[in-house]
């Protein structure tokens, strides 16, 4: 689960991290009053969407202006005007894709005199089995670009689960070249971030940039936070921060039925049981020259109703030109899959080619159910055969 920048900053502020004063705006009519609560004289107006690259993004609508999703203003009235131009308009960044995201919230923040921009993040490092800091003096840039061009400017520091030490904080401050007041701020900030990360079950915390201001103090200028979905039940307060308008409607619908679904950009809808088999299915679809439209794992104990809903979700995607059902019945029974597919096809109608490959528990019964259904279904003997048939059918 991801949250907005302003929410991330409020969370970090509650742990003691230094952030600027700011005000969230949902209605352009309230923007000037909101900006007037800030010290000024410089105001930063930030579109709030779950995507990076906002500052370099472009709005689709001409009346939003030529500037990106992060703009400077020199008065509350000017800040309100920039907020008006953003709200309700579609911002396209390198992370949103060409469809972009509609800006429903704008954050107006007190400006800062920046001396240096730094990069700092925390994530779960699978190679070490620990939470790790990533620090670089190259703030304001994509960390992937820094890693490719100047990897020596990045420090990755795994933290022992027993807790963060002063030595760990000092190494990070050294990597960021913090001195004087900035170093004192950094030494205080590092354990704050680690504590917030662990206590709230974050999966990722990225501060880009972390700035050193001209007065020598450190401030969190931007913050991106994502939480481990497996731990959400422990944090009802954080669950309340969820903004479902930022999430794909089909993925939200799938979650209601406990389906693992991720929408992709391809044209072959895939319904599979088991994450590994789903990945293999997507790979072989690509191998034969097509692109998967989704990742969808119905799980090992799916019911007829669950399978029916999964099929309906796939067919709700207008980009789907063909469907591949690939089931290996271990715990999952092939006859249940067959009944679910038939129910869904009868309910929604089938306007695209459908290839079904069944193997495992009750496979003959499942095949018999499909064969006697009267549906126009292409049968496949194995995964390779299924992938070739669905790609050929779509082409």
UniProtKB/TrEMBL annotation:
PROSITE patterns on file: ATP_GRASP, SUCCINYL_COA_LIG_3
Binding site for Mg(2+): 208, 222
Domain of life the protein comes from: Bacteria
InterPro entries: ATP-grasp, ATP-grasp_succ-CoA_synth-type, ATP_grasp_subdomain_1, Succ-CoA_synthase_bsu_CS, SUCC_ACL_C, Succ_CoA_ligase-like_bsu, Succinyl-CoA_synth-like
Cofactor note: Binds 1 Mg(2+) ion per subunit.
Biological process terms in GO annotation: succinyl-CoA metabolic process; tricarboxylic acid cycle
Protein family (similarity comment): Belongs to the succinate/malate CoA ligase beta subunit family.
Entry protein name: Succinate--CoA ligase [ADP-forming] subunit beta
Organism: Parvularcula marina
High-level lineage: Bacteria, Pseudomonadati, Pseudomonadota, Alphaproteobacteria, Parvularculales
Gene it is expressed from: sucC
